Amino acid sequence: MPTVILLDVSLSMSRGVDIASPSPEDDDVEPLPLRRDLAVHGCNILLDHFIQHCKLEFASLIVFSSVYKVLMPFTRDFEAIKNALNLVDECDKTNIEVGLMGAAQHILEEWGNGTPCQIVLVTDGNAGAGQHTLQKAMMSTHSRVSSQFPLPFPFPAKLSIVCIANPNEASLQTSNPLYQRLIELNGEGDIHIPEGGLTKKTVSRMFEQLIKTNFSSYSGTLHCGKLSAPITLSPPPQPYCRHHDFEIVRVSVDSAIHVLGFLNTGDVSSPPAFSRHLVLPLSAKGDMVMLPKTDAGSDDEGGGNDEGKVPSFCVLLHGGLKRENMVALCQVGENWYGILYSWADNKKKSNLMLSMFVPGTEIIPWLGKLSNLGPASKLSVNPYGSVQSTSPFPIKVTEKKSYGLNCVVWVRQGGLQSDIQKILRHARKLPDKTQSFYKELNRVRRAALSYGFGELLEGLANVLERECTLLPSSAHPDAAIQLQHAYEALRNHDKKDIRQNITPLKTTFSGND
């Protein structure tokens, strides 16, 4: 998942390292003089891990003090980020709130609010001159007054706070409760503090622990009958954890992914996915096997292309799924399923992808229970026919769903405005559109009562009353009568009974329907 390195470049990061009581094992090692140098060293360890194990991930570098600055936007060029780390300049005071706002804004601009992200906040354990301001801003998130505090983030994110400080520093002891509160507001994250004295080795171990906790790559095996292949998934799959009414569901992805069977792509269609991952084969050394970038018609120049000559089950499965237009149903964990399929980002290149569903056996409604699926050859009658022109899916259910009829949705202002305008269009064509007018009027009335939006009925009555006064002299007499009847009924009807409908008023005019 995309990662933002949020680096504190305030004046306090330029402090020297206290070596009064270094760790015994580091007596022969001279620590780096500045905390900022230690932070850059730790960030380089993280970036080296990306270069080796997370080549397909995106990372960004943002520095902050009292203002923030995006030094490197999201990129896969991790060497460029390492070069940018060596060019950071010291600024003024620390303001963590500004840094978090900058990270949130950059992620929203690049990825929107649906992509899970990692935010690594590297600071010196000092909340800065705005410590009390930060505490007050965090407390305001529970008030009714609109708060601009960035947490919780408007997108799924894990916040890791890395402190370049000695564990016994007074500033860290004061700031640690604030850091804990930031993690609680975000909902997911952790705090990392060096064990022992603040030296290059302890900072290295701290970042290695951060990598082990949050940036470990996935290594597993894909099985299909007697065939298997070592694979990795990018981005690494995250455990599923959801709080239900009476239980907490926690499921992790197994190291072995088993293919259970194959389905036509049309039968699966586009099911809702919990996460999507690129499936890549692993070499004998445990590294990702990347396809060589060669132009059409050019000869390979050898050197490092030995992996392309080794038979790969992943390549076989991908080619078969693409040619037959099928997907492979697989099990990724206990009661947890997904599908493998060929996905193309352009016309020339396609990849083997894994979409994982939420745990359960009834996650694709039109397929029924996944545990009931079996080989079509075992059935007495082939449901696909001789030419596979028909499909047994979707499975038809006998009961009528509550969402079978069109419902009224007013998530955005335009939806409500569109419904009101539709009523007005029918009102201006009275009495020819009398039945349509009352049908839409009752539809909006039922929705307003269901949502507890009683003020809408009064507002709609005012709009219809005004429309009645604006009728031209050439309008049919029945138009004014029906409009008057409609807005009076909106005001006088029982506003608690959703079953009562407003019916057209019977008149003696020949134009009445």
TrEMBL record:
GO aspect biological process, one term: snRNA 3'-end processing
Integrator complex subunit 14 beta-barrel domain mapped to chain residues: 215-360
Localization of this protein: Nucleus
Organism: Halocaridina rubra
Family statement: Belongs to the Integrator subunit 14 family.
VWFA domain location: 3-125
Annotated transmembrane regions: none
Keyword Nucleus: yes
Keywords: Nucleus
Protein name per the record: Integrator complex subunit 14
Residue span, Integrator complex subunit 14 C-terminal domain: 408-510
